[in-house]
Amino acid sequence: MKPIILHIDDNQDDLELTNHALSDEFDFLSAITGVEGVQIAQEITPDLILLDNDIQGERGLEILKKLKSHRDTKEIPVIIYSGVWRDDDENTFLDYGVDDFVRKETSSKLLRNRIYSALKTTKEKAQIAIKKEQKLFSEIESRLNAKAKSKNIDPEIISDLLQEINIYQAELDAQNDELQLQQQVSDELLVKLSDLENNLPVGYARYSIKDYTIFEANQVVRRVLQIPLNQHDSLSLLIRLRMTFEADILELSNWLSSNSDFSSMELKAKSSNQWIILSKSVIDETSALLGVVDITKTKTAETERLELALKNEQLAKEANLNKSNFLANMSHELRTPLHAISSFSQLGIKKFTENEAGLTYFQNINKSSKRLANLINDLLDLSKMEAGKLVLNLRSDSFTKTIASAIRELQVLADDKGTTIDFNPAKDHVTVFDQDLLYRVIINLISNAIKYSPENTRVTIAVSETDNMIRCAVTDQGIGIPNIELESIFDPFTQSTHTTTGAGGTGLGLAICKEIIDLHSGKIWAKSPPEDQEKGSQFILEIPRIKTLNLK
Questions:
Q1: What is the pTM of this model?
Q2: Is the peptide bond before 337 cis (omega within 30 degrees of 0)?
Q3: Quick check: 498 pLDDT over 80?
Q4: 394-544 domain in CATH 3.40.50.12780?
Q5: What is the spatial distance between Cα 504 and Cα 448, in angstroms, rounded to a whole number?
Q6: How far apart are CA 503 and CA 515, in angstroms?
Q7: What is the pLDDT of residue 446?
Q8: Which of 3.40.190.10, 3.40.640.10, 3.40.350.10, 3.40.50.2300 is the CATH number of 4-197?
């Protein structure tokens, strides 16, 4: 159980501040008048009383006299806790039994220690009183036994009386043991509190909003601001902060004196890498409570993480550039032998028209060489785009006609699978774009829709406009794409798990599409299933209607 402290003071802010600073170790009762304080003391009997010297015109000495003249409160230790008192008052206070004097501007640690010291002294006095009572009862027992023998008093009467005395003695012994235990706990708490205050990571100080005078500061603040320990600081909080940390004097002054509550500010030390964060809570019109937390470790970790992220980003860019250069060089190197293979296969097809087996071999060689050529071209184009070496050939053209042209090229592929292509534009959509590259994107999206859809299904192509964008949506009724893969399918060499079952493809088509759309300052994304279907996929691209292109 925590000791109960009665604080008698007419300043509500001082009551709250003391309670806030010491509530972890003590239970506080408060009174704002002397009459109320004396009444509470008589009813509750607190373990200690903190008494202000001037309470609404009533001197603390008069309140002390009332406390010491009542049988229920005369043994309660009293500490005069006030901002000012006259030197000649101290002797008078001591004459009436006051235990200690503590000024309000002192630290909460010192006040805490003075309270424990007063409680300790009171317990020691109680122990001395108990010992005196024990000695007195021992003398009474000896005298009673002597009287009994000389007066022939009934031994049972003496026995009953001694038994009652022994019971009382046992109660006194128990009380003494309890006092000793409480004293031991009190001493241990004092040691722990001292260690806690020395290692507390959070500092606090109470200061004047008007002139920044430091009323009270714990050891963390004193250490951070280099204030001499256990001494009154002659320098203001503003000067201390300005001396130690990098701060604009006007900004810092306005922040410290403002009435804005629960605001904060970060400061860096002038001569070291130390960082602190200040937080402020206004107590009243004249004072505020400042919180100080050392965030050096956090700031250092943030800086290291940022430097590492920038380093990794640079390494990634270099690796990506090296990869693109490698692919470009390899593509050029592969084209020469591949061209020879393609030419000789075409020659073989012409020579072996009457030899069915030989013709089949050369046709397969020619087909494979074309597929490999397409892969090399894709690698070369992608590496150019990623390296920023691809230049757009921009001109004003019909986006609608480009789509129609792509549909005509793919009509044979659609007819072979019984796929119906729906494209019914309401108007001709004209904008500035690279016709060859956008044509390639449309070809890729429509051919994928046909390739990965069952036979006898429908592919729908819709074009629409907003104020500054043209949108094209290609929707199929195929196998769909898992939601978790809707973004990754635009990465190089990546295909959906639903489309890697023998339908072909290198995993470069959509990556190239994304690079082309990015070059046009547009965007491309996928949905699966589309909003009005139970299955299938929808690929949507947007490009600007006006000349706001980001040329890479």
A1: 0.42
A2: no
A3: no
A4: no
A5: 10
A6: 24
A7: 95
A8: 3.40.50.2300
